[in-house]
Amino acid sequence: MLASPLQLIDSFLLNYTIGDVLLLGFVGGLVAILPQRSLRMLGLHTIALGALLVITPASAMEPNSASVLASSFQYKLFGLVLLVLAPVLYAVGRR
């Protein structure tokens, strides 16, 4: 039998955590924002993703076999770094 497309997507996503998905969203957002050359928009994007990484429960970010980072603490630490960096980007931006 052929597997449905949703089953294929589900079997692929089982190897990743919500932290990996948030990091992928962060990178995708960076790619979308960079052509606009707006540091304020980049700062807002960074603070939103940093806050999401910090408030997401650690149990949802337990690493799997294909996770980007090794522990949920590293995801939280990366979120804190983004939260510290974001106001600087926003304050330096002109438009």
Give structural notes.
With 95 residues, this protein is an all-alpha fold. It has one domain (3-90). The chain is built from 4 helices and no strands. The radius of gyration is 16 Å and the shape is flat.
SSE layout:
Blueprint: H1 5-13, H2 18-33, H3 39-55, H4 72-92
Helix pairs in contact: 2-3, 3-4
Outline of this structure?
This protein is mostly helical. The chain has helices spanning 5-13, 18-33, 39-55, 72-92.
How many domains make up the coordinates? Answer: 1
List unreliable stretches of 5+ residues: none
- Number of DSSP E strands: 0
Largest beta-sheet details = none
Shape: flat
Termini gap: 55 Å
Discrete helix count: 4
- Bin the strand percentage: under 5%
Protein name: DUF8006 domain-containing protein
InterPro entries: DUF8006 (IPR058319)
Domain DUF8006: 4-94
Keywords: Membrane, Transmembrane, Transmembrane helix
Salient structural properties:
membrane, 66% helix, mainly alpha, transmembrane helix, 95 residues, transmembrane, DUF8006, single chain
